[in-house]
Design brief:
The protein is built from ten helices and 16 strands. The chain has 361 residues and is α+β, with helices and mostly antiparallel strands. Bound molecules: adenosine-5'-diphosphate and magnesium ion.
Length: 361
C-alpha cells in the first residue's frame, strides 16, 4: 500500500472562535479520505499551548486541555518536512507532510502560525503570511481594495495613541449615522457596535479599543449580506454566492454563536444571474488583490439590489458541516471530502512551486 500523507490538523486556539474551530476540525477529520491521508491531531488550548490529542478520535472535547502527561509540542524548524517533536521527552511525532490550520482570528488566521510553518518548511493549507495578515487587518484590507477600485464602505481609522482626535461631530459629518465601530484586527463580531448617537459612539469607541489599539469607524451600508467561497492558488475559482439573513440588528456575536436562530443561511442566494456573476468576479478579484492563496470566503453587502460593497475576507472560514464555505462548494458541485482533498493538494502544489524559487543570486 502506498504511504498515506500525514496531515496535521491544528485546531482550537486562543481566539473567541475556539469552540467553532473544534467543530470544524472534527468535521474535517471525519471527511478526510483515510485511504490517502492520515490525520494527526494537534490541539491548541486557550492559553496557546500546543499538544498532541491522540484521544480526540474517541471523544471530541469541548475545549482543548494539555494531554494527560502535560506534554506540549514544538515544531523543529529548518528541515524539509520538519518533524514535530514533543518538548518533554523529545519523542518524535512527525514527520508530517502538510499542516491544515483550522484556527480563526488572531494567532491562527493572521499570519503568525503561517510564518511559523513557513520557517519550519512545512506545506500548509490556506493563505501565506502576507495574505493572512492582510485578511486580518480591516484597515490594510480596505486600503488595498480602494487602491484596486473595489467598492468598500467609507471608513476612518483611529489609533489609541491619538484617540483625543476622535470627534463625534466630525465623524458624523464624514460618515453619517448610524455608523459601525470595530477593532481593526479581530473577528466573530467581537467588539463591534452599531452606533446611532453620541452616547453610543463614545461607548463603542471604548469597547473597540479594548480589543485593539487601532479601530475603524465605517459608514453604515444598508443591504443584504452576501458571501462567496474562493478556491485555488494562481487561478482561483468562485462558488455560487450565499446569503446570511441575520435576525438581530446586525450579524453580531450573539447572532453568530449564542442564538441558534440568530441567522438563516440561504444557499444559493436568491439573486439575478448578473449579480451572482458580479459577486463571483469580484470575489476572485478581491482574493487576488489581497494576496490570498488556497481558500477564502469573501463577504459583501448588496445595497439597493444593485451595488456590491466588499465588507471583508476570511482566510480560514468556518468548516463545520453547516458553515457557509463548505456549503457553498457543495451547492457548486464540490463535496466536503473533495474540498478537503483539493485544499491539501493546493498546499502541496504551492510548496513545490515556491521551493523552486531562487532565494539568492
Ligand atoms: N459598514 C457596515 N454596514 C453595515 N453592517 C455592517 C458594517 N460593518 C459590519 N456590519 C455588520 O457587522 C457584522 C460583523 O462585521 P465584520 O466587519 O464582518 O466583522 P467580523 O470580522 O467580526 O465578522 C457584519 O456581518 C454586518 O452584519
Ligand atoms: Mg464578518
Amino acid at each position: 500500500m502506498k504511504r498515506r500523507f500525514r496531515v496535521a490538523i491544528l485546531f482550537g486556539g486562543k481566539s473567541a472562535e475556539h469552540e467553532i474551530s473544534l467543530q470544524s476540525a472534527k468535521n474535517i477529520v471525519e471527511a478526510l479520505d483515510k485511504k490517502k491521508y492520515q490525520p494527526i491531531l494537534i490541539g491548541i488550548n486557550k492559553k496557546g499551548q500546543w499538544s498532541l490529542n491522540e484521544a480526540l478520535d474517541k471523544r471530541w472535547p469541548k475545549t482543548i486541555k494539555l494531554n494527560k502527561a502535560g506534554k506540549s509540542l514544538a515544531l523543529a524548524p529548518g528541515r524539509k518536512m520538519g518533524p514535530l517533536v514533543r518538548l518533554s521527552g523529545q519523542e518524535r511525532v512527525g514527520p508530517v507532510d502538510v499542516v491544515f490550520p483550522v484556527l480563526h482570528g488572531p494567532f491562527g488566521e493572521d499570519g503568525t502560525v503561517q510564518g511559523l510553518l513557513k520557517l519550519a518548511n512545512i506545506p500548509f493549507v490556506g493563505a501565506g503570511v502576507l495574505g493572512s495578515a492582510v485578511g486580518m487587518d480591516k484597515d490594510v484590507l480596505k486600503r488595498l481594495l480602494r487602491d484596486a477600485g473595489i467598492r468598500t464602505a467609507k471608513f476612518l481609522v483611529f489609533h489609541r495613541s491619538s484617540s483625543d482626535e476622535i470627534d463625534f461631530d466630525n465623524v458624523q459629518h464624514q460618515l453619517g449615522l448610524p455608523c459601525f465601530i470595530k477593532p481593526a484586527n479581530l473577528g466573530s463580531s467581537v467588539g463591534i457596535n452599531k452606533v446611532k448617537d453620541r452616547e453610543q459612539f463614545e461607548h463603542a469607541i471604548r469597547e473597540a479599543f479594548k480589543y485593539d489599539s487601532k479601530i475603524l469607524v465605517e459608514e453604515y451600508i444598508q443591504g443584504r449580506e452576501i458571501e462567496c467561497s474562493v478556491l485555488g492558488n494562481d487561478d482561483p475559482i468562485a462558488s455560487l454566492p450565499g446569503e446570511i439573513i441575520p435576525r438581530h440588528e446586525f450579524y453580531s456575536y450573539e447572532a453568530k454563536y449564542l442564538d441558534e436562530k440568530g441567522a438563516a443561511l440561504q444557499i444559493p442566494a436568491k439573486l439575478p444571474a448578473h449579480i451572482s456573476k458580479e459577486v463571483q468576479d469580484l470575489s476572485i478579484k478581491t482574493f487576488k488583490t489581497l494576496c490570498c492563496e488556497g481558500m477564502a470566503r469573501v463577504d459583501f453587502f448588496l445595497k439597493d439590489h444593485k451595488e456590491l460593497f466588499v465588507n471583508e475576507l476570511n482566510t480560514i472560514p468556518g468548516f463545520t458541516k453547516i458553515s457557509m464555505y463548505p456549503k457553498l462548494w457543495e451547492a457548486s458541485g464540490i463535496s466536503y471530502t473533495e474540498l478537503i482533498d483539493r485544499l491539501i493538494q493546493l498546499a502541496l502544489e504551492r510548496f513545490k512551486r515556491d521551493s523552486k524559487l531562487k532565494t539568492s543570486l
